[in-house]
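Batch job 17 of 40 flagged for manual review because the log was empty.
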Amino acid sequence: MTIKQKLFLLTVLPTVTILLFSINHAIDKYNSYHNHELLISSSTLMDHTANVLHELQLERGLSSSNIKSYEGNNLYFSELLLTQQAQTNIAIEKYNAFLNDLNKKQLKIANEEIIKSIDILLKSIVYIRDSILNGEMTHENSFTYFSYTNNQLLELADSIKFYSNDEMIQTKIMALKKILLLQEISGQERALILQINRNSLSIKNLEKIDTLLEAQYNLYDNIKTILRNSKIDKQLEEIDRKNANNYFNEVRKIVKNSDDNKFSVDEELWWSVSTDRINDFHTLGRDIFSQIVSDIEIRNSELYNSFIYQITITLTTIFALLFGAYLLARNIDTSLKNLDFGMDKFFDFLNFKTNAPKKIDVNSKDELSAIANKINEQILSLEKQLEKDRRFINETTQIVHLMKDGIFYEKSSFDPANPSLINLKIVFNELTELISEKITEQTNSLESLNKTLADKVNKQTAELTKQIFEITKARDNAIKAETAKDEFLANMSHEIRTPLNAILGFVTILEQRIKDSKSLDYLNIISTSGKSLLYIINDILDFSKIQSSKFTITPRDIDPLHEFSSITLLFASKAYEKHISYAVYIDPNLPRLISVDETRVKQIISNLLSNAIKFAYKGGFVHINICIKDNFLIVCVEDSGIGIPLKSQSKIFTPFTQADSSTTRKYGGTGLGLSISFKLAQQMNGTLSFISQEDVGSTFTLNIPIKVIDKFPKELVDLKKIEKYKFAILNSPEMSILFVELIKKYLNDFGIIEVAEIKEHVDNGYDILFFTPNDLYNKKIIDAKKPAIAILKSSIVNLPNLEHIASLFAPFTPMSFIEAIDNVAKEQIRKMADIEEIGNYNMQSSDIKFNANILIAEDNKTNQLLMTLILDNYGISYDVANNGAEAVKIFKEKKFDLILMDENMPELSGLGALIQIREYEAKNSLSKTPVIAVTANTLTTDIEKFLNAGMDGFMSKPIDNRLLEIELSKHLKIA
């Protein structure tokens, strides 16, 4: 332990001792201060109790005078009673308010059971008053109620805890309790004499009065003894003088001397003088209460001042001790540092780190100074010896000078005085000659080596320059080739999409107009083939974008439940064409809002579902499961199909590759779908994996990180509304096991844990039944007239339109599932004949008409004809421009509601026409006309170019009539 630590310990120990002692004393002071706060609360509760007691005593006497059975009831006492009841209510409200404050502060200063009993009694006072007013209450019952209530209040006052050791305060509290009891006994006497005056005088009543008088005398004497030699003593004497010769004592004599049933007093006068006497006692009690509060506050102030004084003295003492210790420690620390510094310099000298020792500077006059002086004496002796040695060294150093230009030279005028240095001079001369020879030899060698290295560096530099030139040239060629490839693909896409637009567009128009089923089949083949070609083009373009790193990921905020439900339902019709059980599970508890590139995720899901349905065996199943865990979107697609052979699994994500050539011949496809999906998952920082077994099936799992914007799920249903229902599933041969498990899983998600499975139809044990229609059970379910939900794959069923049966088309999503339950529960079921087959979309655009005039800018005659036919269906008038320049000219001549603008046109392109149109609008202060780009240029860069130039929308060729209708609805008014 160092000197500083010892000094610190020596100072801290007494300081801590003083601090602990002071803290202990301060805690005692604080506890006393806190107890006085409790004492204030106890005294205040006593005061409120006394006020309620006093008001109830007055109401008791007046109530006895207002019993309806008494014929002598008069207006005087009735008016007094009404006034007194109001005063009683005020006292009770203040009493209850104070008790509520105590409960909030969690202060327990009185008997809780008594407080509860009083609360019940005070709440029943309204009933007691009504009974007195209606004549249903006797004198005895009225007197008993009020007396019992007052006795409970007296017990409450007696149970109040007073945290005080002050003898004077305890004495006054005792006197206050006895005054309360004296008030109660006096009040009983007042009411009893009024009752006797209205009835007959009996021995029993006389005994009661004698008992009350005796108790009053004893209490009064006791109070006078307690309060002797105090300020209150004079108030007691004044009460004695006041009641000495008044009507109060006269009535007492009348009662005492009555020996028959004759008994008569002036009730009003008796009420007045007895009430005055009780009020005097009440005033006396209030004065005592005021003195108690005053004593408590004085004592509280003394305790607080003592507490502050104690803290001040303690802190001052501690500060003085610490400051003194600081000064002493600083003095010692300075001396020690100076001594330590001097010793370090001295040892540096001994270790040849410095040329001369330095004296130690210690300014204190203590033992440390003595030590420093002794060391300084030794330093002085060393300095003298050092001077002798320095003279010898000076002679030695003059033998040779430092090297100049690589050659040592001797100072010719130097002649050493010390004989031993003469030999040293000779040795240095020989050494100088040897060093000069070595330096010359090494210099020649270095010059030769330097020349060789320079030749090698020049040669390597020339080779490197040549390689850089070749690499740069190869890079430029690669960039040109990549650009040429992109331009070629874009041109090919444009050239294929343009005629494909006409093919698919005219097929759609013919499907609306031709009714012959065989012709419709041919048209369907043409449409399917055209769409397949379009899918192949899209796959090739997507793959090209990914390979050239031009594929962009654009997250946006979406409702996952809605978006993923819509994409999964698109594949229902394809699945049922192959009689595949297609089941969709989407977690109903998905977050309300997430951020993800919804388009790319849907593209991956579409590829996975398309492959699953394509490769699944007829009569098999396809199941998709979508959920979100730990901020990851997880999509699992499982099928019971041909599977992937083990030898082919390693190359399944390779572009233009399928399991083997027979797969391509049998099922078709480019082999790009999975490769594109795999690359898309990687670009979104996710993964796409699979497990597969040949002839059994495959499961593909997509994991994509997402950002949760609103973590709370959508409220699809009021859970309390469906929790009351019991559900059952008719597990018939027609009901797929996949659907049974899916129904149970959805019900579990909505809080329904118990779901019954029945093999045969029964009428009881459930509220809502899930079933798959068949001829065996249809009639039974119809006749049962209980709510049921039919699991359907198409609208072609043999069930009649019934209000108690709802339709749930598979695959069902959380929204359609809960909607079916809600419909059957409300008995508001859609008609079966009105339900279309899922996935079968018949465009009814002719039902929608627009009141508008459109300018079509298109150079291809076939596409012009197609677009005019489509617009005719919507009742839209139009003008056609064959190129961009003609479009600008027509626009300046007429007013249009919308412009459909092609890009690749002769004379002036679509973008050039747009620029001139916008300039014309700005120059003439015209509002902007919406312009939609309709083009076969579908590269991302092209789309961005159109939108950045000021286009209001974009549509790719071939034109999708549904998308066109959406764009028209955005900008035009429906007729």
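Reviewer: the log was empty due to a logging misconfiguration, but the result itself is present. The first strand starts at residue 556 and ends at 558. Unflagging and moving on to job 18.
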